[in-house]
Amino acid sequence: MTDPTAGEHHFDVRSSRTVYQGAILTLRVDEVEMPGGRVAHREVVEHHGAVAIVARDAVGRIAMVRQYRHPVGRRLLELPAGLLDGGPDETPLSAAQRELAEEADLAADEWRVLVDLVSSPGFTDEALRLYLAEGLHQLDPAERTDEEAEIEVEWLLLDDAVAAVLAGEIVNATSVAGVLAVAAADRTGAGLRDTDAPWRDQPTAHRDRTRR
């Protein structure tokens, strides 16, 4: 496989300024040296990063949640997911376990890394790690507030979830990737990574800012 970092130019950052810093993201503007010597401005959204979970039960159904998403103004059918904002000692796996409990009232005995994503690398460092969780068992209902107070858990057979993706009924990018990745892994027999597998693109810039 070709080295993804190969290339002669280093894209050195000449300067950087913070435009906005909020609870879940920071907007900064970098001056970056382009090939040939030109300096270009690049707007970068720093993000906590996130995890998502394909939780599959013994009969092959996956747990999905339907919740309101204010930026698009409607309820979406999604995989359980959440931000890597649980504090300095919380690992991505621990965050995934927490989110599965908080959003779907589930725990799992078996965890593997399904796929890693960078959501839109043209302007943000946001990255997500998706897990496959199996050996499920039910937990007591979690207390939920705000948008999550109306979360509904829906169980779909994997083939039905794939059909919902292709029909445009599941549009959340993370959920689309997770559903199709599980279907591809099942079809090809591809091995999945252990939960301690390196995560090269795990974002840290916004996290480090908020710890200062």
Automatic annotation (TrEMBL):
GO biological processes: nucleoside phosphate metabolic process; ribose phosphate metabolic process
GO molecular function: hydrolase activity
Composition skew (Basic and acidic residues), residue ranges: 193-212
Keywords: Hydrolase
Domain Nudix hydrolase: 46-178
Superkingdom classification of source: Bacteria
Signal sequence extent: none
UniProt-listed InterPro entries: NUDIX_hydrolase-like_dom_sf, NUDIX_hydrolase_dom
Residue ranges of the region described as Disordered: 191-212
GO cellular component: cytosol
Name of the protein described by the UniProt record: ADP-ribose pyrophosphatase
Native organism: Gordonia soli NBRC 108243
Taxonomic lineage from the root: Bacteria, Bacillati, Actinomycetota, Actinomycetes, Mycobacteriales
